[in-house]
Give the backbone structure.
Amino acid sequence: MFSTPLTEGGYHRALTLTEANRMIQAAVAKAHELNIKISVAVCDIGGNLVALNRMDGASAVSATVAQGKAAASAGFGRASGTLQADSPVIQAVIAALGGRMLPARGAVPVVKSTELLGAIGASGATAEQDELCAQAGAALL
């Protein structure tokens, strides 16, 4: 499905902070269009946070939820809403990673030229609106 080729130095290509911030700006612009307040998180392929933004007026917990959704999407390489939350395998992976992942709709993988680079997740509105904002961010890359 996705490849993760190595750079010349033997490392996976990583999302840059500039790329992450541009994706967040696109997601926030979509949120303004939808007249909602969200938090947006961008994670690398390991589910590690690259950038986070909580809009004024977004709930405090939405920042943590957005990061959990993005970590799940990055870790499994697919939209977080497609993950079977009650799957024993998914639950085992989440437990092994200390509960950092949240298999709930609102995050999508970030892919460039078939290469999985991470994921972007949103939280604070409906699951559908969160996912629309995440898709707007991912489309920028």
